[in-house]
Structure formats: C-alpha cells, structure tokens
Write a structure and sequence with these properties.
Shape: globular
Number of domains: 1
Helix content: over 70%
CATH topology: MetI-like fold
CATH architecture: Orthogonal Bundle
Number of strands: 0
Strand content: under 5%
CATH superfamily: MetI-like
Order of helices and strands: HHHHHHHH
Radius of gyration: 21 Å
Distance between the termini: 51 Å
Length: about 220
C-alpha cells in the first residue's frame, strides 16, 4: 500500500500537467460544449417532435430512437470517420468526436425537454391563447421558461453523465482524462496507480458539480 502511495506521488510530481491541466481541461471542455450545443439542438428536436407536421415528427423520432438505441462508442466511431468526409476541410479529431457527443446528448436532452413541456399545465397554454398569443409566442414566453425550470435537475444529471462518457473519447486520443491515463501508463507501466489518479479526478469533478447543482436547485425552490 505504501508503495502504491509513493508511486502515485511520483506520477503526480512528474505528470501533474498531463492529468490536471490537459486531461481535466479537455474533459471539461468536451463536456461543456456537448451539453451547451446539445441543449440548443435538443430544443429544436423537441419542438420538431411535437410539431403538427407529421413528416417532421417521423424524421425526429427516427433520429432520436436510432441514437438512443445504439452504443455511444459506435456513434463516436461513425463521427470520427464520417465527419471529416462530409466537410471540405480537415478538422481535428476532437471536433469529429465532439460532433458525435453533441448529437448523442441532443437526442437525450430533447426527451428531457419534451417531458418538461408536457409537465406544464395545459390550462396556462389555453389562457395564453385566449389572450391573443400565437402558438409560437405561447411556447417561447409561457411554456419553455417553466419547462426549463422544471428540467434543470435532469440537465445537471446529463452534464454529470457526459463528463463520465467523455472517457470513451480516449479511443481516439483526443486528450481527455482517459487519454492522459493511457499516455502516463505507457510511460511508467504503473497501471493501477494511474487508474486510481484518474478515478479520483473523475469523482472530484462529478462530486463538485453535483454539489453546485444541488445549491442551484435549492435556490430555485426558494424563489418559487
């Protein structure tokens, strides 16, 4: 046990930048971009699924069900090989992987938004329409603000989930925490010690984020 601790100290003293700056930095960057872009796209997917235009409904439902019904690693492989072929210019690997992560998150977020919208009392929609608001104005001014407030805890959980799922991106060596683990393990041949460091870093990231989300949720409840 003492030997493990000594090895961990040696690894951190030599490779702290690889783990704490590069690994954590790329993990947070990927997670933030994925959740932010996924939330925006998810809103449009949700509205498309709830639209009265049936062909649009079918297209959105097909996209969401395919993404939710296939492994994320498979989607990352498709994004990694397909995105560069669709664009007329070269893109970094992290962009190709990020596109796949965003699409995956958007499909899950769209369902979160749909549940939040359906949880809003229909009487408010009817009252807004009786006051002369159009369907789009009712959705943007009355329904969506309340839905977003209802789904913030679920969006927070999506952020926590994405932080962990970015570990799959290590398959393509894009620089996040598990990529840092592979690099340092290859240099030191200390597998368990590197895994313990990465595990602690993931736990700290998710624990801190969960506590911050808890504080935010309590403030929302107080403002009600």
């Amino acid at each position: 046990m003492v030997e493990y601790f000594e090895n961990i100290v040696k690894i951190l003293s030599r490779y702290w930048y690889t783990f704490l700056v590069t690994g954590v930095g790329y993990t947070l960057l990927l997670s933030l971009i994925t959740v932010a872009a996924g939330s925006v796209i998810g809103v449009f997917l949700c509205l498309g699924r709830m639209a009265k235009f049936k062909p649009l409904n079918w297209i959105v439902i097909a996209i969401v069900e395919v993404v939710r019904g296939t492994p994320m690693l498979l989607q990352l492989y498709i994004g990694y090989f397909l995105v560069p072929k669709l664009l007329p210019f070269s893109v970094p690997d992290i962009v190709s992987v990020g596109v796949a992560l965003v699409i995956n998150s958007a499909c899950y977020v769209s369902e979160i938004f749909r549940s939040g919208i359906q949880a809003v009392d229909r009487g408010q929609t009817e009252a807004a329409r009786s006051l002369g608001l159009s369907g789009s104005e009712t959705m943007m001014r009355i329904v969506l603000p309340q839905a977003i407030k209802n789904i913030l805890p679920a969006l927070g959980n999506e952020f926590v989930t994405i932080i962990k799922e970015t570990s799959l991106a290590s398959t393509f060596f894009v620089g996040e925490l598990m990529t840092s683990y592979l690099i340092v393990k290859g240099n030191t041949y200390l597998t368990m010690e590197c895994l313990l460091i990465v595990g602690v870093l993931y736990f700290v990231l998710n624990f801190v984020l969960s506590k911050l989300l808890g504080v935010f949720e309590r403030r929302l409840k107080t403002s009600d």
